[in-house]
């Protein structure tokens, strides 16, 4: 197997698309936002992040009609799960969203019943979680009936054998999970990695070696909030994961580093609220980006706003396609 | 969703508030009073996420706002509501909010209908209407007379000519025997109302919705779903068909919103998202 660490990537940068356009012959110079991502084609590079709204066909359609090019469902497991008690979500001022939902979901069988027969006109990526490699692939096989565009593996799940650690923190476990799912299905498999490790790159490399078609970077950072009046942790689970603007520079650096170490496409996620944030991720090397927590502060209009800004940026910079931006921040 | 309103991180932040007064309303219900500047500005129909410190957090309607003092009325049903009902003066609870879209007060001849603890949500609407010199017709249904917790208050307001009041009870122990919706059916055939406002069990709301459709009356109903985030992101409280979120697009919905929502009046969802019939 190729040692991906030394396979330092330099993507060919295409020249800006130039069109000679006379007054008499007006040519449509509007840039395209079409995105090709590990076998998926989407209208634009914005994807709804997992865990946000994507629990029912109606919410998924609503987000797609708000402008998302693709959506990721909430994570589905083998059994129904109520999740943690409330408070399970807490907004920290205008910079952070803290959550410990506890993976609420109706279980894969019930989920399939609800989604069966739904025809979506946009790619739907189904997020899966499990407590062992076998559980992940079992859920994946059951979901195949829904003709998913891809699977996203939520690797930030408790390790069934090693209490207290997450599957995604162990490169060997990551390899096993991705490998197990990849050998059970014949559709693209994305690995969503946790930032709660000392070396994100080695985790991503394990996933790629096991056959991951794309790396989604990154999941939430471990965090908490304590109420000073009652001196009590606010989340019922005491601690949880942080998303939102607070984590953007951290996740951005991780995407930047991954781009130089792995060959598969990267989906950047973490604190994207504006088109400028999205452009930064593309420049760092993300082929597409996921939007989630932004909906708290910006509402569903965030998708259209980012698309509008992205298109203007491309026109100003004379870019005709996103390929010309992706990874360009690597000087 | 909330393109109408900018998200306010301050109103969303957790505040610990000392309880300054508790009224035992009977029928395992209590009204807890506290001071909070954000809740003082609450629109009728909006709700708070109320934290029984170190336990759970539940959505509760704002039932009272007067002179800077705010109140929530809780019925002891589960662990958290039992804990909230046992709070006494000078103890504290945590609040976030107010959240969601409340009732829009329009028209001159409104009909307000509540069932059971739904009266908590309607109570503030009654106050706000009277402040605007709109004198509503109020129908309150309960299983039994003692569960009509604001009966005395409504009788007093009725005596002052500030509202027209029709109590109903399933067992006939107070007012007309039967459901609130039966009274509403009779009332709409006699008078012309511009708008029906409802809060209570979904079966009652669905009956009101059908009456409003048959009689071509505008309607605003407050729905209840299991909620986690209250800010429109977790999707736990989404209505099928429309994808509308009870926590942020609601809890008060118009006729058009409800027409698009295929689960209204039919099924609800558990914490895991499993459907169960209403």
Describe, in plain words, how this protein is organized in 3D:
The complex is a heterodimer of chains A (about 325) and B (about 280). The longest helix of chain A has 15 residues, at about 300-315. Chain A is globular, with a radius of gyration of 20 Å. Chain A has about 325 residues and is an alpha/beta fold. Chain A has nine helices and 16 strands. In chain A, the strands form four sheets. An eight-stranded parallel barrel of chain A has the order 3-4-7-8-9-10-15-16, surrounded by six helices. In chain A, strands 5-6-14-11 form a four-stranded antiparallel β-sheet, with no helix packed on it. A two-stranded antiparallel ribbon of chain A has the order 1-2. The model of chain B has no long low-confidence stretch (mean pLDDT about 95). Chain B has eight helices and 16 strands. The interface between A and B is large, with 50 and 42 residues.
- Side by side, the strands of the main sheet of chain B go 1-7-4-5-6-3-2
Mean pLDDT of chain A: 91
Distance between the termini of chain B: 26 Å
Largest interface: A-B, 50 and 42 residues
CATH domain class of the largest domain in chain B? Alpha Beta
CATH superfamily descriptor of chain A: Aldolase class I
Tell me, what's the shape of chain B?
globular
Structural class of chain B: alpha/beta
Number of helices of chain B: 8
**CATH fold category name of chain A:** TIM Barrel
> What's the quaternary structure here?
heterodimer
Number of domains of chain B: 2
Radius of gyration of chain A: 20 Å
Q: Number of helical segments of chain A?
A: 9
Structural category of chain A is alpha/beta
Largest sheet of chain B: 7 strands, antiparallel
Mean pLDDT over the residues of chain B:
94
């Amino acid at each position: 197997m190729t040692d991906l660490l030394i396979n330092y990537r330099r993507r060919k940068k295409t020249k800006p698309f130039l069109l000679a356009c006379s007054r008499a012959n007006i040519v449509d110079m509007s840039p395209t936002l079409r995105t090709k991502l590990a076998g998926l084609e989407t209208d634009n590079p914005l994807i709804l992040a997992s865990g946000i709204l994507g629990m029912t066909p109606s919410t998924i359609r609503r987000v797609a009609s708000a402008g998302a090019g693709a959506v990721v469902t909430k994570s589905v497991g083998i059994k129904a799960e109520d999740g943690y008690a409330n408070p399970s979500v807490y907004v920290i001022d205008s910079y952070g969203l803290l959550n410990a939902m506890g993976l609420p979901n109706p279980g894969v069988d019930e989920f399939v019943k609800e989604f069966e027969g739904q025809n979506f006109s946009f790619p739907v990526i189904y997020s899966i979680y499990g407590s062992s490699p076998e559980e992940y692939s079992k859920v994946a096989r059951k979901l195949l009936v829904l003709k998913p565009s891809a699977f996203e593996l939520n690797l930030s799940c408790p390790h069934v054998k090693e209490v207290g650690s997450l599957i995604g923190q162990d490169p060997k476990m990551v390899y096993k999970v991705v490998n197990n799912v990849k050998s059970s299905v014949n559709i693209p498999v994305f690995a969503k990695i946790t930032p709660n490790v000392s070396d994100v790159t080695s985790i991503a490399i394990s996933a790629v070696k096991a056959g991951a078609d794309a790396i989604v970077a990154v999941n939430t950072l471990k965090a908490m909030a304590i109420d000073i009046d009652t001196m009590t942790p606010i989340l019922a689970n005491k601690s949880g994961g942080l998303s939102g603007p607070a984590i953007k520079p951290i996740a951005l650096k991780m995407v930047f580093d991954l781009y130089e170490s792995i060959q598969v496409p990267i989906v950047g996620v973490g604190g994207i609220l504006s088109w400028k944030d999205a452009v930064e991720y593309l420049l760092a090397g993300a082929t597409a980006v996921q939007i989630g927590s932004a909906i708290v502060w910006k509402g569903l209009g965030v998708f259209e706003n980012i698309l509008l800004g992205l298109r203007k940026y491309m026109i100003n910079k004379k870019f005709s396609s996103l390929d010309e931006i992706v990874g360009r921040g690597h000087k | 969703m909330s393109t109408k309103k900018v998200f306010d991180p301050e109103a969303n932040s957790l505040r610990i508030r000392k309880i300054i007064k508790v009224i035992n309303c009977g029928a395992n219900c209590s009204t807890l009073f506290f001071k909070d500047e954000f809740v003082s500005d609450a629109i009728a129909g909006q709700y708070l996420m109320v934290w029984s410190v170190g336990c759970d957090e539940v959505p509760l309607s704002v039932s009272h706002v007067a002179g800077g003092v705010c109140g929530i009325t809780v019925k002891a049903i589960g662990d958290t509501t039992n804990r909230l009902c046992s709070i006494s003066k000078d103890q504290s609870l945590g609040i976030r909010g107010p959240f969601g879209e409340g009732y829009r007060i329009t028209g001159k001849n409104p009909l307000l209908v509540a069932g059971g603890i739904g009266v908590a949500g309607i109570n503030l609407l009654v106050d706000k209407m009277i402040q605007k010199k709109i004198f509503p017709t109020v129908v309150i249904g309960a299983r039994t007379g003692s569960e009509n917790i604001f009966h005395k208050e409504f009788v007093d307001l009725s005596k002052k000519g500030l509202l027209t009041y029709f109590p109903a009870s399933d067992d006939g122990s107070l007012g007309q025997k039967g459901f609130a919706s039966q009274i509403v059916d009779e009332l709409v055939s006699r008078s012309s109302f511009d708008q029906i406002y409802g809060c209570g069990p979904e079966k009652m709301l669905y009956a009101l919705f059908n009456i409003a459709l048959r009689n071509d009356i505008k309607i605003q109903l407050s729905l209840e779903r299991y909620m986690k985030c209250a800010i429109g992101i977790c999707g736990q409280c989404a209505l099928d068909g429309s994808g509308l979120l009870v926590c942020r697009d609601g809890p008060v919905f118009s006729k058009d919103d409800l027409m698009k929502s295929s689960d209204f009046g039919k099924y609800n969802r558990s914490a895991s998202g499993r459907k169960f019939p209403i």
